[in-house]
Design brief:
With 354 residues, this protein is mainly beta. The protein contains 5 helices and 24 strands. Helix content is 8%, strand content 37%. The mean pLDDT is 96.
């Protein structure tokens, strides 16, 4: 991790961008994102997993350690939730100076229907011991970051891990997890940024002291500088995105449309509770109008919005912003941090009306 020295995209950023992909914003039309359009971030390599020999181990501070096959997990009670997932680095490429990492614009998001078995019932069966504080999730993907070789692993506070919507997932949109989405098993913790959704799960470990792994202690923190210990990234801040209106110019992606009534639409979400207000501006954020909100497919997923704009000839900057149930509202301008995380500044879309 570092800071790009200039405006040019670096070779390192190109390598990351070629491996990972964002949601094409026109796909916001879909309430449930098709699997191939859902955003994807893979830290290291996609591990090769043999489902016949794979096992999930549950241990640590528990009375009864468990070892389960994929078929045994599928035989347990299951739940299916529509859940919006967003990368914590979404919007990083819009910061100045630009942090050197996956160069996301605003499309690192998607909403899928995830099917799995509740984590809470598995922990109850294992018998969590008194004094336990966190649950550590370890994936099979391994690599080097910050000069440290490690498996990708993160923890959740025990109270968060016991929420009924936290799932051990083996299917997406009614299909078995594909390799890139964590086959054979992954964690889905609704409301949390994508770094918490550990893929290719190998083990779940209950611990009686805070987890100090690299991804927890050094990655995904809001820092003013490289030496600042910072504060951890947790839940998704409110965000609204717009289905791009009109048609695009190929290279610049500037939008072109005809004058007259134009229906703007999009999706909005927050990890802190439902979105209760979406506002739209056609003048770069100087004045705002209230959009009409649609229903969300679940309490853990984005909701649609719609706004009728009378498009006058000329150049315009369209903006949209969301406010959630806690009163948090998207800022007009980005708030810089060293890692480029949690940039939920309002989206800005340049349009030319003829």
């Amino acid at each position: 991790m570092g800071i790009a020295s200039g405006s040019d995209i670096t070779l390192e950023e190109l390598q990351l961008a070629a491996r990972n992909h964002a949601l094409p914003l026109e796909a916001l039309r879909h309430t449930i994102t098709p699997i191939g359009l859902h955003y994807l971030l893979i830290h290291f390599d996609i591990p090769a997993v043999d489902a016949q020999t794979w096992r999930l181990r549950v241990g640590g501070c528990v009375e009864r350690p468990l070892t389960l096959t994929l078929e045994e997990l599928k035989a347990r009670p299951s739940r299916t939730f529509a859940v919006t997932l967003e990368c914590a680095g979404n919007g990083r490429a819009l910061l100045a100076p630009r942090p050197l990492s996956q160069p996301w614009l605003t499309g690192a998001v998607g909403t899928a229907e995830w099917t799995g078995t509740p984590l809470a019932s598995l922990l109850e069966e294992a018998g969590v011991l008194p004094g336990s504080v966190e649950v550590v999730f370890t994936g099979l993907d391994r690599g080097i970051q910050g000069g440290v070789e490690h498996r990708y692993e993160r923890s959740l506070p025990l109270a968060e891990a016991l929420h009924e919507e936290v799932l051990l997932v083996y299917a997406i949109n009614g299909e078995p997890l594909p390799p890139q989405h964590g086959f054979p098993l992954r964690l889905v913790a609704p409301g949390w940024y994508g770094m918490a959704q550990v893929k290719w799960l190998e083990s779940i470990t209950v611990v009686d002291e805070p987890f100090r792994g690299w991804q927890q202690e050094h990655g995904y923190r809001l820092q003013e500088s490289e030496d600042d210990p910072g504060t951890p990234v947790t839940r998704m801040l409110p965000r609204s995105l717009m289905v791009p209106p009109g048609i695009p110019e190929f290279v610049s992606r500037e939008r072109y449309l005809r004058a007259g009534p134009c229906t703007l639409m999009g999706r909005a979400w927050s990890g802190y509770g439902p979105v209760e207000l979406v506002e739209v501006s056609a003048d770069g954020g100087r004045s705002w109008g209230e959009a009409v909100l649609g229903e969300a497919p679940s309490p853990f997923a984005w909701r649609s919005w719609m706004y009728t704009w009378e498009a006058d000839p000329g150049e315009h900057e369209l903006c949209c912003r969301a406010t959630d149930a806690t009163g948090q509202t998207q800022p007009l301008n980005p708030e810089w941090n060293f890692g480029g995380y949690c940039n939920n500044a309002v989206e800005r879309v340049r349009v030319v009306v003829s």
